[in-house]
Amino acid sequence: MSLKAKLLLLVALSIAGSVAAVTWLIETRTHQTFREIEQDRTAVLVHQFQRELDREGQEITRGVDTIANSDSMLRTVINLHNGADYNSHVDEAAGYATAQRLDFLDLIAPDGAIISSAHWPARFGLKQHWFLESPPPIPQQAFLKHVETPQGNVLALLCVRPLHTYGVNYYLIGGRKLEPVMQGLTLPEGLQFSIYSAPEQGQGEILGAKGSVPSANLMPLIQQAIDRHGEASATIEWGPDLPQEQIVHAIALPGYSDHVPAVMLVANSLGQETALEKRIAKVSLIIAGLGVLFGIIGGGFVAARISRPVKKLAQAATRIGEGDWDVRVEPGSQDEIGKLATAFNRMTLELISQRERLVQSERVAAWRELARRLAHELKNPLFPLQITVENMMRARQNTPQQFDEVFRESTATLLAEITNLKTIVGRFSDFSKMPAPELQEVNLDELIRGVAQLFQSQLTSRPAPIELELRLGDIPPVNGDPVLLRRVVENLVLNAVDAMPKGGKLTFSTELNHKFAVFELSDTGTGLTQEECARLFTPYYTTKQHGTGLGLAIVQSVVSDHGGQISVSSAKNFGTTFHVELPLWEGSREGKSNGLGAGVE
Amino acid sequence: MAGAAQASSRPRYGGTARIVLHDRVSNLDPTAEEDHPAARDRLASLLFETLALVDDQGRLRPGLASSWSLDESKRVWQFHLRLARFHDGSQVTAVDVAASLSRAGIPWKCTPSDRQTVTVEAASPAPHVPETLAMEKFAIVKRQPDGTMLGTGPYKLNEWQPGERALLVENEDHWDGRAYPDAIEVQMGASLRERLLERQLGPYAAAELTLDQLRSLDPASQGVMVSHPADLLVVLFLQADNAVAGKPGKKPVDPRVREALANSLDRATISNALLQRKSAPATGLLPQWLTGYEFLLPNLSDRANARKLAANAGPGAPSAPLALAYDFSDPIAKLVAERIGVDAGQVGITVRAYGDAHVNTKTGQASVTADAVLLRLPLRSLEPAVALAALAGDLGLDPEHSPASLNAARPEELFEVERKMLENFRVIPVAHVSQAVWLNGSTHNWQQLPNGVWGLNQLWVEGARSSVP
Questions:
Q1: Which helix (H) or strand (E) holds A33?
Q2: Residue at a domain's end among B91, B117, B144
Q3: Which one of A17, A560, B108, B155 is separated from A592 by 20 to 30 angstroms, measured CA to CA?
Q4: Is there a common fold for A70-180 and A187-269?
Q5: Alpha-carbon gap, residue A158 to A131, rounded angstroms
């Protein structure tokens, strides 16, 4: 990824990240604000309901007190105490209940038997024990409790009053349904109010809920409030039918006993909050999009200014890498980029200087090596020359009768050594006068086959025979000088033969590798170390006793002059393979590429 | 019970007696199904007459038949018709009578012997034919081709608004002479709330009262006439134990649950407290005062046994609620049905009581979804055998019960028939309930039979235009 692209990406990410952070902050603050509002609204509604409940309770208490304190009720109770038949009072409660607008009214005997029931006359005679079993005193205030009716349990606000008569207590239990109290509430928009009625026996139900509320979603919350005898809250997702989320507060309402008779449910719609959050998210998305767009445009302009000199620097470095040491970069500005360009130029100059010093030292080293090799090569024939001359001089002086014979032998030796000196000088001369290749179409397979035939009889007839194997790939002709290439192959063969004093196998192989013909020569000889492989093509380097160290240097020079390359791979005691790549003959390369093209088609 | 209202002076002709019926009558045909058959019979008896009549002592008296006789085999009855005319002036003949009786479903063969004699022939000795024919169901009706019905009664139908109002005018040609009032106007379902608050009937000569209305009046001083506890409040399980006879689609209630329900009922509280002693606890279908043997029937009030039975009932029972339908227009039925629910709840049976408009007819019973219905059945005859046969028919029990009761010559036989009718607890008697009528002080000679049937033959109202010559 380019520097410019990186800069643009950084700018875009920075803008998007900033917008996201701001959005998160706004949404968090909005969320907190809505929660505070929701809690305030809930508190107001709960207070309103509690007030209505208190007011209704006071009315009920007043009504029941009025009945309990009436003369007619006193007469009834006295009559009952004096043995009046309960049967004749079965309708007594209905009239009182109507007068005091009570939904429920029971007149109960001291033993708990219902004497008269306004709401369910058929319960005459049944025993009511719940208020007798509770520890005294009987509460003066109204309380929530379920009342049995023919239609089932009804949640009611009840009041109990004892009727004292001659030392015994009759009882009045009166009350009203709770639902009208709920219906009298004024609900702010978005707020829902209902009551979960939890009778001691049987299924509970939700009262006052508008629409179908899936109570299964609320049950865990309700149970939590009942268990705590207090409050619990949760956010409820109503599902596909009622997509709106609500935060629901469940508040347990106390009853006559420990049993929680009802749970108040206040549901606050999160619709407004959700809508606002969606709008914030939408606006943020737009801002982020625009920011990123402007960021890319502005950043692109800035990045272009920053990256252009850097790009020039990179191009200059590339050219230097390719060998163009004359390239320079204009500093352009005084900023860091300009300083970088100046430093680059200074570094380039320093590199050129160092390279020249290196070439100089290499040149000196090469001359030294040449001098050492020359001295070494020339010293070997000079020593026999000196010995032979001294031997002739001693023979002339000490044994003149044998001088002729010594003279003959010595002159022969001298001539041989002088010839040897000429050969050495000739080799150096040849290396220095390496001719330029005369390129032509060369059938490399034929050339290799010819060399192999030449060495065939010589190598197989040795005491330690060397087997030759040809794996020629019928490759197209190469672009080369046949004489020089033959010299290359012969040199490599001789080198391999020297590496296999105990015999072995010499394998010739050719193959086509894209635009090059590849020739490999593998022996099964002693192999080379890594260091030897690295220095093998250095002139005058040899691992042999009598080598000049020029053979492989000449080979490399010839291959290089042909536009090819040579490499060696070897492992100690596992043989050596020379790998030679030569460019194909132009005509054959075109033909081959045409053929390849046709093949592809 | 004899007529309560005593004539304060000599009877007078004329005037209109306005009567309020609590129930609404939609059809005057004595043979048709009717939601309130007792009220319908009260109206119909003024228009249509039976061959024999029953007086306030329960004795047979000649009606349209001036006399009757039984042959030696005790199977063949001959009824000699008196010279009477239908309201269109045509004479009543044996052919008319035989046709009317056959249409009414008389259980015996009925043929005209001559113009004024009708023969009723039974396959076996039939001792209660005249009492049976005294029931309003077998009143003689002449049906015109246009569908109108003609009777021979002391009043003719002048105006008819089903369920609302009927205006009956006196029949000058009645074989027993014309009635005292010029007309009787019957209003059905009219509210008596204001009248009861004022304790004055005002323009009305008489009003039928329900027992809850009766509570607000002092029966001793307000001219209230209360019958013997005659109507039967009874729980009928609609599905018979054999599926073929039962109603399709609903399973019969486990007999153990039925027995448990029968044992759970606190009949004393129902009669004494809820019905304010204007009823008697019922252990049989017929009241004790009529048969004298009701006390021999088992008094089912054993809650411990009821709990055991309910607990031992099959899976699903008694936890599955029993639906009990009652006549929603009858406040007493509602009260008693709710009490049945309360009592059943004490032994672990859940009963859901609800009001329905047509529980009293067999057609209505076929359409309700309830397991059982609470019925209020009138005592149709003061002859126990005939009354039991009529109840068996009203309850839709096995067909053999009706002939068996009609053939019962001795109380022991009748007791056995009734016991069998009750033994599988498909029918659970709850109470025998009285009927009450509130009479204005200006109303005279209002008669009410022990079973609550009105006898208005001698009725007259004050303020009439002339006295009896």
A1: helix A3-69
A2: B144
A3: A560
A4: yes
A5: 11
Where along chain A do its domains lie? 70-180, 187-269, 377-432, 440-593
Mutation for testing the B interface, residue in A80, A85, A86, A87 having most B CBs under 10 Å: A87
In a domain, B274, yes or no: yes
Chain pair A-B, CB pairs under 8 angstroms = 37
CB–CB of A121 and B266 under 8 A?
no
Gap from B351 CA to chain A (nearest CA, Å): 10
Q: Give the mean pLDDT of A328-339.
A: 81
Asked if A84 is an interface residue toward chain B (Cβ–Cβ < 8 A), one would say no
CB A175 within 8 A of CB A159: yes
Residues of B in contact with A88 (CB under 8 A): 276
The Cα diameter of chain B in Å comes to 75
Domain co-membership, B274 together with B407? yes
Tell which of B101, B127, B144 closes a domain: B144
List of chain A residues whose C-beta atoms are within 8 Å of the C-beta of residue B280: none
Q: Are B440 and B423 members of one domain?
A: no
Amino acid identity, residue B438? Answer: W
Q: Which two tokens stand for residue B421?
A: 């009718």
Q: Which fold has domain A187-269?
A: Beta-Lactamase (3.30.450)
Based on the fold, state whether residues B215 and B168 are members of the same structural domain.
yes
Query: Domain check: are B306 and B395 in the same one?
Result: yes
Instruction: Please tell me whether residues B310 and B266 are part of one structural domain.
Output: yes
Q: What is the DSSP letter of A436?
A: P
Q: Which CATH class is domain A70-180?
A: alpha beta
From first to last of its 469 residues, chain B has per-residue pLDDT tens of 334 444 456 888 888 999 999 989 999 999 998 888 889 999 999 999 999 998 877 789 999 999 999 999 889 999 999 999 999 999 999 999 999 999 998 989 999 999 999 999 998 888 899 999 999 999 999 999 888 999 999 999 999 999 999 999 999 999 999 899 999 999 998 888 778 877 888 889 999 988 888 877 765 666 888 999 999 999 999 888 765 544 455 678 888 999 999 999 999 999 998 998 889 999 999 999 999 999 988 877 888 888 888 888 765 555 578 899 999 988 899 999 999 999 999 898 989 999 988 888 888 888 888 999 999 999 999 999 999 999 998 888 877 778 888 888 888 999 999 999 998 899 999 999 999 999 988 899 898 888 888 888 889 988 755 443 3
Residue among B266, B335, B336 whose CB faces A125 most closely: B266
Interchain contact A91–B (C-beta under 8 A): yes
How far apart (Å, rounded) are the C-alpha atoms in residues B278 and B436?
Answer: 9
Looking at chain B, which residue has its C-alpha nearest residue A127? Answer: B346
| Six-digit token string for B11 | 């009877």
- Do A87 and B272 count as a contact with CB atoms less than 8 A apart? yes
| C-beta of residue A211 within 8 angstroms of C-beta of residue A267 | no
- Give yes or no for A235 touching B (CB within 8 A): no
A342 — alpha (psi -120 to 50), left (phi > 0) or beta? alpha
Asked if residue B455 belongs to a domain, the reply is: yes
Answer yes or no: are the C-beta atoms of A544 and A505 closer than 8 Å.
Answer: no
- How far is the alpha carbon of A185 from chain B, nearest alpha carbon, in Å? 33
| Nearest CA distance, A123 vs chain B (angstrom) | 6
The answer to whether the CB atoms of B277 and A87 lie below 8 A apart is yes
Q: Is there a contact between A124 and B269 if contact means CB atoms under 8 Å apart?
A: yes
Q: Which residues of A touch B335 (CB under 8 A)?
A: 121-122
Top-confidence residue, A384 or A261 = A261
Whether residues B242 and B389 share a domain: the answer is yes
Which residues in chain A touch residue B273, judged by CB atoms under 8 angstroms apart? Answer: 86-87, 90, 124-125
**B342–A91 CB contact, under 8 Å:** no
Domain range holding B85?
49-144
Domain A440-593: which CATH class? alpha beta
> Which amino acid is located at A82 in the chain?
N
For A345, the enclosing helix (H) or strand (E) is helix A336-398
Q: Do B300 and B414 fall into the same domain?
A: yes
**Which pLDDT value is given to residue A151?**
82
Q: Which of A517, A503, A508, A523 is nearest to A577 (CA)?
A: A523
- A174 pLDDT band, cuts 50/70/90, is very high
To the nearest whole Å, the CA of B267 is away from the closest chain A CA by 12
> Which amino acid is located at A282 in the chain?
K
Nearest to A121 among B274, B346, B353 (CB): B274
How many domains is chain B built from? 3
B137 with B20, same domain: the answer is: no
A98 CB neighbours in chain B (<8 A) are none
